[in-house]
């Protein structure tokens, strides 16, 4: 029994090298061998073409020609990787590294989100300019050599506040208000309260106690 094989259609494949003359709404006009070819960028070609690029175009026939690759471009020109739609870069079993000799710039028109079990960042110096920042976490440990805060208003709210220092200096130019249910100050050696006018008052009982009391 004879088996008749289906006859494959005849193709006239195109594969040429040319120069990009113009780009209009994703359609590239490429000049090859004295003729202009109109083609779209293949999905596998991530490098965004520019006018003047030397490119490779290919296709099964004249009506289906695609720009496959950017072969050459003048030096000192930015190379842009671009796609239409969402894009994901994934390593199934290895690491992903991004390195640049000069500046690395990450920009988004909407938001940037980092998600990982742990985050580590190391810099010799850093500058952060944030319009508004909210931090939410369970615990924060910071170890720094020196810390300076400059602000118009600083507000602190806590159930418990603890401060330990070897030396503490506080200078208030105008008014210092303290409101508490109980105030307890204790010094091992000397306690000094001085002012141009000093007033000590008590609503119920005032007690002054000491081995010696000097009043002048």
TrEMBL record:
Pfam families xref list: DUF3540 (PF12059)
Lineage of the species this protein comes from: Bacteria, Pseudomonadati, Pseudomonadota, Betaproteobacteria, Burkholderiales
InterPro entries according to UniProt: DUF3540 (IPR021927)
Protein known as: DUF3540 domain-containing protein
UniProt organism field: Advenella mimigardefordensis (strain DSM 17166 / LMG 22922 / DPN7)
